[in-house]
Amino acid sequence: MRRGEWLSIPRLLLATVLGAQLCCALTLSTYFGPEDKARLKSLFTSPRALADVPSAHYAAFGLGLLGEKITNPQDFCKVLKTVDQKNVESLYHAASGSKALGNCPLDIPEGKATLQAALKEDSSVVQLYHAVLALKALGASVDSAKVSQLLLAALKKDDSMANLGYAFHVASVLGGNLSPFTDRIEDAIVQADEVGNELLQFEGGLSVTATILSGVYRLSETAKKAPNV
Which keywords belong to this entry (predicted)? Predict the structure, then answer.
C-alpha cells in the first residue's frame, strides 16, 4: 500500500461493500474469502487505524462490516474525541465513528452548534450530507422541511452524480415529502455507463457508484417504494 492510500482505499472499499449489501442482499463472504477478510482485519486493527479521526471512523465501521469485535474500543473513542468541533467533516467522522463503536458518547456542544450552523443556504450537497448525518448519528433533531429545501437548492447548483448519491443518503433520513428526491432516482440510474458489456458504473468510479446505489436503496426503503434499479 502506497503512502496516502489509507484514507482513500478503506473508504472506497467500505462504500462498495455497503452498496453491494444494500443492493443485492449479499454478504461479505460473497465478495471476500477468508484471506481477504483477514487482510482487511489486519488493516483495520493496525496502528494506522488510530492515526486520526477519519481513520478511526472507517476502521471501526469496517470491523463492524466484517463482524469483528473491537478489542480496544477505548483507544478508538479517545481518537474520536480529538475531533475539531469547528470542522463539519471532522464532526461527521467523529459522530459516525462513535455510532459504529456503540459505547462512545461525545460531549461536543460546540460541535453540535457548528453542525446546525452548517444548515444554511450556501452549503453544498456534501456539506449538508456531513452535517445532517452527523446530527442524526449524535441523536440531535433536524428540521426535515428546512433541510429538504436546502438540499434541493444545492442540487440546482450542482447535480453531479456524486452529489445525487449524497442527496439520496440525506433524504433517506428526512421525513415529509420525499418525492422531489425519489423522482431523481431514474434520472440518475440512466446515466450509468456500461463497462465490458457486463457491468454498469457511474462516472467517478466505484466509490460514486456505491454511493449512488446505496443511497437509492436507503431512500427507497424510507419512502417505502421499490428501488428503481
Answer: Endoplasmic reticulum, Signal
